[in-house]
Write the structure tokens for this entry.
Amino acid sequence: MRVLAVGGAGYVGSHVVRHLVSRGHLVTVLDNLSTGHAKAVEVAGKAAAGGGCAELVVGDVGDRERVGELLVSREIDAVMHFAAASLVGESMRNPAKYWRNNVGCAVELLDAMVDSGVDKIVFSSSAAVYGEPTTALISEDHAKAPTSTYGMTKLAIEHMLRGYDQAHGIRSISLRYFNAAGAHSSGEMGEAHDPETHLIPIVLRTAIGLREKVSIFGTDYPTEDGTCIRDYIHVDDLADAHLLAMDALSSGAATTAYNLGNGTGFSVLQVVRESEQAVGRPIPATREGRRAGDPAVLVASAERAASELGWSPNYTKLGDIIASAWKWHDSHPHGYS
Ligand code: UFG
């Protein structure tokens, strides 16, 4: 298939691009490189097989004319939409950036799809659409009460997608990622944010000596060891789900949403300990106050993705996820640069 991967130079996007090209798909990445890396697309493209290939077009998803031109000239069959501003804390300080970048640009992208008759889209949504969970495992029909502007924008886009289906017949699958983690098994691709805010890369960068210590945000949560619990899901498992979602849409699947997680939670302290095991040395960490907006526990029920998409994660052990991330960070301490 011919796929437009919007934001395909980012962490999750570039891993999906790699999976796509290695299975013979033709991928056009549209990315403004504000947080993504041209090198990530180049590395992903090298895995091409069976006629697959990846090209990078530097541009904005909010540029409806440009997107429309790409959809037509590349004869695109399906869109994957990864591009977003995605920092929960920043979204609280600068909501306009999130409403404009995430929601505003999604309107332009969907309008470009309407203009050019492309009718399938896989959308990167987030566990942040749920807010504070009321059940141990979060299933797709759990109440949606996002506690951050970031989560609100992801939920707004899901609503928008339903509206564009009703009005224009664009079918979509929204994939609600829990905590994306890990790196490609080759060690050639991985997470490279600047600034880095996510736990596992911060812990591993501390192990390398690029940071002095890990700050553990909150030790008084109602969890066994007092630190927050999250459901870490490997980026290659997320990538598999995108390909399954695209296949489902191609076979006529109706607009829907799926959680993507392992269904098991690990605390911040467990992540630090498992990382110490993976790197073979102690990692300095200090206990600090809570970070605003962090729910105590976020763990997915991903049964719907298993039964309807046939998705099952390969990386079910936190230690294996961290080991894959370590392979990348250890060999690329400065990311793609
Ligand atoms: N944490 C620390 N120290 C750090 C960084 C993080 O203790 O230096 C803690 C956080 O407080 C949290 C856990 O580690 O409890 C995981 O934090 P991350 O920042 O790695 O991930 P989040 O759970 O905050 O965020 C993820 C995605 C978001 C998404 C959110 C859904 O990265 O895009 O889940 O709630 F919105």
Notes: The chain has a mean pLDDT of 97. The radius of gyration is 19 Å. The pocket of UFG is lined by residues 86, 88, 126-128, 150, 179, 197-199, 202, 214-217, 228, 230, 268, 291, 294, 298 (CB under 6 Å).
